[in-house]
Amino acid sequence: MYSQALNAQTAVADASPEGVRFQARVEAEDRIEPNDWMPEAYRRTLIRQISQHAHSEIVGMLPEGNWITRAPTLRRKAALLAKVQDEGGHGLYLYAAAETLGVSREELVDQLLTGRAKYSSIFNYPTLSWADIGAIGWLVDGAAIMNQIPLCRCSYGPYARAMIRICREESFHQRQGYEIMLTLCRGTPEQKSMAQDALNRWWWPCLMMFGPPDSQSQHSDASMRWKIKRFSNDGLRQKFVDASVPQGHYLGLTFPDPELRFDAATGHWIFGEIDWTEFRRVLAGEGPCNRERLAARRKAHEDGAWVREAALAHAAKRCASVRAAA
Ligand SMILES: [Fe+2]
Ligand SMILES: [Fe+2]
């Protein structure tokens, strides 16, 4: 679903002939491909960003997967099932894109399961009611789209191409979420209050999805120069607020922010202070569901061991028969 505000290593521009040629290609909007020369820091930054993004897609299946058996109608169940499967597919494209940079899938999965890799903080919040599925589609996938549309032009070819396909699916996710919210808001007062409660709980964590404020995001210079990242965290966050507030008002809902107001001079919605202490706490593993999420992933990995073993045994057998025939 989404890449947490990336923390590219702050790297000084590479003045070697290869480094200069590389930067010129980036400036010319040429795509860098797996076998092309690239600075080591560029490779490391991409591995970290793409793998964090892949982990977020996979962990992101959990809060919504929790509601597949309880979806209120067959139509809702089919749409939710398709959405959760899409997220699994996004994770797979992204692991494959990261592998083109010379890291193995096993290593990446191990980093997630041992808690060494990060994933988006948003998935450490619980889904308490059906309305949360609406709020997640509308806001979490909505925030993901804001973050990911610029990544379709990322300088690294395999990542950019994966993002084009992912963004198409994310826009379906956003619409199905908003449609759930619309149905609830046009339903009984009880349904509308479920939608309001979901918005109240998800709004601030969604604003945190864009990462720390620009004043504290020390690593984005290199990513901007390499054209991995094109907009700042604060710029994307503002775009998201400007797009989402009128949508919430159309639903007849209010936002849990007493300072929210439209500024006619700039044409932007001004919002209150984000609780960055909560953000850091959740990222550090102390969110409401961090332990539960990792435990679920570890169990899935253990339960799937026989599939990996069978696939490896099958591949070894095929290799042996090809060799025997040669
Ligand atoms: Fe996704
Ligand atoms: Fe999504």
Number of strands: 2
Q: What is the end-to-end distance? A: 45 Å
Counting DSSP H or I runs of 4 or more residues, the number of helices is 13
Order of helices and strands: HHHHHHHHHHEEHHH
- Our estimate of the beta-strand percent is under 5%
The side-by-side strand order for the widest beta sheet comes to: 1-2
Give the helix level as a range of percent: 55-70%
The shape is: globular
Main sheet makeup: 2 strands, antiparallel
Mean pLDDT: 93
Bound compounds, each kind once, are: fe (ii) ion
Spans with pLDDT under 50 lasting ≥5 residues? 1-10
Structural class: mainly alpha
Oligomeric composition of the shown chains: single chain
Radius of gyration: 21 Å
Quick gist of this model?
By secondary structure, the chain is mostly helical. The chain is 64% helix and 2% strand. One fe (ii) ion (FE2) binds next to helix 4 and helix 7.
Description:
This protein has 326 residues and is mostly helical. It is built from 13 helices and two strands, in the order H-H-H-H-H-H-H-H-H-H-E-E-H-H-H. It has helices spanning 17-27, 40-59, 61-65, 74-99, 105-113, 130-148, 157-185, 189-208, 220-225, 233-250, 276-286, 290-303, 305-325; strands at 261-263, 268-270. The protein has a two-stranded antiparallel ribbon with strand order 1-2. Strand 1 and strand 2 form a beta hairpin. The relative contact order is 0.13. Bound molecules: fe (ii) ion (FE2) (2 copies). One fe (ii) ion binds next to helix 6 and helix 7.
